[in-house]
């Protein structure tokens, strides 16, 4: 265990999510969030929250998390998951994710072997609970955290990590750019149950005092090795930003909006050379292979506004990312491809089609995309619209956007809002893709809703606390938790209660459902007339 500095002692949120119990399945101890229902049944949900939501776990952030992968790693050849998969070996990580996803381990191996899925799992991050990113699996969500030169502390960032995974973040990217980058990352890695991603260029830039033109392959290489040693699981590398692509951005409204993209463009222009990320790519592959760090090939020329979507610069870079993907695969290094950004709905499908065609179906990992630019402060929503669509079309991981996007560094509340918003987009995509098991969750909640099992409805939801508090704002009394209505329509016009009454009526009278509906509606019509045909009635009559 790497020693963590004594200068900070973050306190983090612990304890089960309301109404849930942490369970561990099978010999590998795969975690799940078990919701016990009031009808005696239970429902298990995918769980990313690590030991923090385990009521029986002792949490010591100074010591870091237990390391479930340590013995697996020690007991086999130090190959990448891709190399193992190509050799026909089903690793423990593959078996673990198979349980999580409810699929066959051999299916996992085959998807990793053909490069259509990745298991980001640095051998030096044994604390992580394995997960898989690929179009044939559940759509994943990434949450970005990290301090900047302006605000935030290590304590806040560790809590944001725990908080983001509590609400369902499958991976977390540490995008710190301010002071204490190394120490912040150490705290995050040692306490993270999910894969951690970084953009090594940010730290390299700090090392040359923020001057992009002073960057060099040597500074960058040493930074990558430093981060590989610490245990970073995947790295964004903007190796597709080529000198000849930079002029293609000249006519854009928002130019180059990727931090990494603008840094590399500045370097290329200053040196009038192709970037060291591109010219040293094979060497970079060797480094990442020796730790099993996954490439996340960055979209440094992604569009920063609706008008710039799908332009020549964006797709030129994507073509280069396709070439780099093949080089990485030749070195047995796992690869994801990053995507935009800001794209109107009618241009989203082309992004997925081209990515799959040019990059051999390597998992697509997109930021949003925002489907419109006109709603600052609501960009978690503008982007979730695009995210749900691009997820449905085959994108494997969605990078969240918080309400603070374009406006400021997100705080803890923004992180939760961003994660929940993206879990909605991801799950909507899972449903549309027909992922086995996705609809069972909806059906279980729908049934609870129809049967007025309010506690079950709250506890099965993505955010039980908020669902419960919204209900209790107007009907806080305990009997309301079994009442056959809520304050939205009131007791007399609760359509679900009326439907349930119709069914009971049909059963009692031995009628077919159509006859019962007709008879029930006729009776309701009489009731309506008896109340002077008023549509809205005071709920105090309950
Ligand atoms: S009152 Fe309306 S919103 Fe509330 S449970 Fe009944 S149908 Fe649903």
Describe the secondary structure blueprint for this structure.
Elements (H helix, E strand, L loop, with lengths): L19 E6 L4 E7 L5 E5 L23 H5 L6 H6 L5 H10 L3 H9 L3 E2 L14 E2 L5 E6 L8 H13 L4 E4 L6 H10 L5 E3 L1 H8 L9 H14 L3 E4 L21 H13 L4 H4 L1 H11 L2 E4 L14 H19 L4 E5 L8 H11 L5 E4 L11 H14 L4 E3 L12 H22 L4 H13 L3 H6 L4 H11 L20 H15 L3 H18 L12
Parallel strand pairs: 6-7, 6-13, 7-8, 8-9, 9-10, 10-11, 11-12, 12-13
Antiparallel strand pairs: 1-2, 2-3, 4-5
Helix pairs in contact: 3-4, 5-6, 5-15, 7-8, 8-11, 14-15, 19-20
The site of iron/sulfur cluster (SF4) has 8 residues, from helix 19.
Task: Write up what this structure looks like.
The structure is a single chain. This protein is α/β, with parallel strands linked by helices and 542 residues long. 43% of the residues lie in helices and 10% in strands. The chain has helices spanning 70-74, 81-86, 92-101, 105-113, 154-166, 181-190, 200-207, 217-230, 259-271, 276-279, 281-291, 312-330, 348-358, 379-392, 412-433, 438-450, 454-459, 464-474, 495-509, 513-530; strands at 20-25, 30-36, 42-46, 117-118, 133-134, 140-145, 171-174, 196-198, 234-237, 294-297, 335-339, 364-367, 397-399. It has an 8-stranded parallel beta barrel with strand order 6-7-8-9-10-11-12-13, surrounded by 6 helices. It has a 3-stranded antiparallel beta sheet with strand order 1-2-3. The protein has 20 helices and 13 strands. Among the domains are: 135-433, TIM Barrel (Alpha-Beta Barrel); 484-541, no CATH class. The structure holds iron/sulfur cluster. Iron/sulfur cluster binds at residues 485-486, 488-489, 494-497. Residues 1-26 are annotated as: Disordered. Pathway: Cofactor biosynthesis; thiamine diphosphate biosynthesis. [4Fe-4S] cluster binds at residues 486, 489, 494.
């Amino acid at each position: 265990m790497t020693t963590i500095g004594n200068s900070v002692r973050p306190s983090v949120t612990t304890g089960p999510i309301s109404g849930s119990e942490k369970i561990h399945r099978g010999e590998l101890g795969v975690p799940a969030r078990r919701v016990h229902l009031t009808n005696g049944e239970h429902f298990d949900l995918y769980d990313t929250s690590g030991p923090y939501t385990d009521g029986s776990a002792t949490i010591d952030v100074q010591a870091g998390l237990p390391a479930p992968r340590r013995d697996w790693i020690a007991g086999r050849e130090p190959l990448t998951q891709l190399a193992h998969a190509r050799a026909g070996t089903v690793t423990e990580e593959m078996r673990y994710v198979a349980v999580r996803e409810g699929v066959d381990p051999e299916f996992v191996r085959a998807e990793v072997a053909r490069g259509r899925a990745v298991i980001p799992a640095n051998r030096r991050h044994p604390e992580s609970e394995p997960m898989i990113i690929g179009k044939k699996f559940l759509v994943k969500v990434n949450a970005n955290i990290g301090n900047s030169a302006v605000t935030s502390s290590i304590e806040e960032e560790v809590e944001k990590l725990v908080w983001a995974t509590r609400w369902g973040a499958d991976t977390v990217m540490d995008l710190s750019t301010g002071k204490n980058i190394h120490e912040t990352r150490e705290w995050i890695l040692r306490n993270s149950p999910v894969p951690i991603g970084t953009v090594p260029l940010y730290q390299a830039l700090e090392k040359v005092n923020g001057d992009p033109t002073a960057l060099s392959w040597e500074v960058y290489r040493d930074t990558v090795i430093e981060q590989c040693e610490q245990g970073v699981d995947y790295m964004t590398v903007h190796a597709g930003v080529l000198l000849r692509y930079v002029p293609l951005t000249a006519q854009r409204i928002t130019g180059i909006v990727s931090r990494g993209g603008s840094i590399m463009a500045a370097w290329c222009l200053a040196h009038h050379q192709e970037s060291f990320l591109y010219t040293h790519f094979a060497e970079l592959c060797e480094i990442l292979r020796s730790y099993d760090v996954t490439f996340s090939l960055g979209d440094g020329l992604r569009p920063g506004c609706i008008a710039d979507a799908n332009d020549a610069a964006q797709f030129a870079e994507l073509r280069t990312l396709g070439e780099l993907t093949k080089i990485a695969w030749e070195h047995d290094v796992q690869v994801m491809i990053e995507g935009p950004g800001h794209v109107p709905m009618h241009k989203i499908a082309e992004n997925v089609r081209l990515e799959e065609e040019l990059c051999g179906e390597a998992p697509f990992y997109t930021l949003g995309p925002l489907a419109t630019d006109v709603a600052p402060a609501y960009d978690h929503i503008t982007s979730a619209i695009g995210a749900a669509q691009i997820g449905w079309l085959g994108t494997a991981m969605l990078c969240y956007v918080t309400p603070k996007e374009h406006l400021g560094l997100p705080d803890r509340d923004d992180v939760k809002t961003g994660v929940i918003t993206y879990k909605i987009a991801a799950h909507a995509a899972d449903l549309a893709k027909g992922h086995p098991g996705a609809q069972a969750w909806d059906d279980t909640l729908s049934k609870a809703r129809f049967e007025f099992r309010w506690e079950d409805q709250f506890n099965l939801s993505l955010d039980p606390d908020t669902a419960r508090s919204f209900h209790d704002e107007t009907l806080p009394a305990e009997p309301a938790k079994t009442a056959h209505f809520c304050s939205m329509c009131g007791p007399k016009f609760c359509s679900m209660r009326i439907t349930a009454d119709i069914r009971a009526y049909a059963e009692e009278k031995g009628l077919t459902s159509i006859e019962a509906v007709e008879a029930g509606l006729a009776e309701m019509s009489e009731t309506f007339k008896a109340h002077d045909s008023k549509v809205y009635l005071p709920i105090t009559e309950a």
